[in-house]
Design a protein that fits this description.
- There is one protein chain.
- The chain is an all-alpha fold and 159 residues long.
- Helices cover 83% and strands 0% of the residues.
- It is built from six helices and no strands.
- The chain has helices spanning 2-21, 27-41, 49-76, 81-97, 102-117, 123-158.
- It starts with a helix and ends with a helix.
- The relative contact order is 0.15.
């Protein structure tokens, strides 16, 4: 039973990293789910209140990193709020419409289309905004990966 418990916990951690590139997968929930499943399979006694307090701070940082990095990337390249919304919608829809490339084309095209239609920008400005959305996506993905790695390291140090 111990082996099964570890397989399930590690699988949750792996799925949380898949959620970094497929935003439809709630990576943070799988990460926390791995911690909770460890407690169910083994013991919650190993996971003290300070562990949970620190992990909650990291969860808040995950959401902040995602939001701030995307917004800064888009704004730095001249994007608007419409471009940000278009990028977000494209990020959610892209992987379903174009299975592999959609994770990159979705936010780019979403930002470009939003800038063209809503903000009535030139094609050059809209493309620049689309590039900003990709920079923001890559930056947030790296930041979230680092935070998730730290969370998992803290978990293994704690247990």
């Amino acid at each position: 039973m111990e082996v099964v418990g570890w397989i399930v916990v590690i699988a949750c951690f792996i799925v949380s990293f898949v959620g970094l590139v497929y935003p439809i997968i709630p990576g943070v929930l799988f990460l926390i789910g791995g911690f909770l499943l460890y407690g169910l399979f083994f013991s919650f006694a190993d996971l003290s209140w300070w562990f949970w307090a620190i992990e909650i701070v990291f969860v808040v940082l995950l959401f902040a990193a995602d939001t701030v990095a995307n917004a800064l990337g888009l704004k730095k390249f001249g994007g608007s709020n419409a471009g940000m919304w278009g990028s977000t919608i494209g990020l959610l829809i892209g992987p379903f419409v174009i299975p592999v490339a959609g994770i990159l084309l979705g936010p780019f095209l979403g930002a470009v289309i939003a800038e063209l239609i809503v903000e009535r920008r030139t094609v050059g400005e809209a493309v620049k905004s689309g590039v900003g959305s990709l920079v923001g996506f890559f930056t947030s993905t790296i930041a979230k990966a680092v935070i998730q790695i730290v969370m998992i390291i803290l978990f293994f140090i704690t247990i």
